Amino acid sequence: METAACKMTLQEKLNILADAAKYDVACTSSGSSRRGKKGYLGNAVSSGICHSFSSDGRCISLLKILFTNECIFDCKYCLNRSSNDQPRATFTPEEVCTLVTEFYRRNYIEGLFLSSGIMKSPTYTMEQMYQAVYLLRTKYKFNGYIHVKAIPGAPEELIARMGYLADRMSVNIELPTTEGLSKLAPHKKPENLVKPLRQIQDGITSHRLAIGKDPQMERSNSSKYLPHTIFRENPYRRLPSGSDPVSVHLPASARCQAHFVPAGQSTQMIIGATGENDLQLLSTTQKLYQMYDLKRVFFSAYVPLNEDALLPAIGTAPPLLREHRLYQADWLLRYYGFHAEELLSPERPNFNILLDPKCDWALRHLEYFPVEINRASYADLLRVPGIGTKSAGRIVKSRRGGLLDFQHLKKIGVVLKRAKYFITCNGKMMHRIPIKEDFITRQLIRTDSKKNWEIEHPQTYRQLSLFDDFHFQSEITMEDSHKSILGQL
């Protein structure tokens, strides 16, 4: 197999390893800001360098590849598991550098997302990935955004050194419960998955303390007005120690000049491969934010790829709408002051998939509504469906100059097709609406039916190729593709 892989062209490797990376969604690129420097290639933008998206909403402006799809493990849900008979390929560190720099110069990409299967051992794999990123930063002077997966089981020193080169690092916990992990990936131990998460968190905390910043990752400015967020009510946060467990592995000059994982860390959970309910998923998400101060938790709707009695049958539709609802609920945890245990309960452990999670919560707590727009606090306004962080702030600011009515709210940006069931202006509702759960539920489901159908029926699951051009009339030849990679076009 290795001999065949060595004979592959760079084009053939790219076709295999770019396609193999499409099931990893934890590749957001916001949170890191770095200006261009003389003699260096590229920069990183804090507002997010991802400018184009595939049809299912995933970012495609990063070069998203696996270093290898070889793997010594046999996770039941993974396409690249060792027991699957499929083409295997492995990049060299220099090949990764060639792809990144040449694609960047042609404005195909703006950064790199690098993950990998496990070849030979976690240590060997992490060494190869580190070598690629080190060459990019030093030899090729690449100053753009880089997101790298940390390999559980790799030495702490390698993860530490990678943290000073990458903008973001992530460790996929894959499944939200130990039971699910033991069924589908029995060789993976929860303690080994969370160990690098803790190490990266400690490194970020220590570095932020060293440069005089709050050790906790920055959040949305709107969150500072909320009295009870999951980040402030954190029973798990460890007090920072006096030592820096990460930077001890680096020379003093490198520690002073570099930033450790400035865009924070993230993780990913697979949705639908096992039988966890939404409450379990959201509770795990909340604990991950509290315990490891993650920037993002990503959800990936499981696409059945392998035949196994413990997995959904091949051909089963991915739970895309459920994935969408979990992302909306995640937003409520991070920016709206909600907690997992109030959004869901053991009696109702799953969201109504046809409703926005905030609407679902509001309908189960109609005793809090309607809310009077001209008197409600900022925190109470955030709990109204159809009112976001920006519109809530505008309401608080605008009503200082006088009483607001529904026309004002529409101009402010309130989504009245949802909010009208839950608010009053000057003591009056927008229409004569009965405050009854069944009635409002039917109205909201009808309002969102078209959007829900579009989420469940995307045009394609195919990850876009770097050579896609849907407006180009002539056929793109293999020679053109090959020249593009090697910089001959």
TrEMBL record:
Keywords: Iron, Iron-sulfur, Metal-binding, S-adenosyl-L-methionine
Signal peptide interval: none
InterPro entries: Aldolase_TIM, DNA_rSAM_put, Endo/Exo/Phosphatase_dom_1, rSAM, rSAM_sf, RuvA_2-like
CDD domains: Radical_SAM
Highest taxon above the source species: Bacteria
GO terms, molecular function: catalytic activity; iron-sulfur cluster binding; metal ion binding
Name of the protein this chain belongs to: DNA modification/repair radical SAM protein
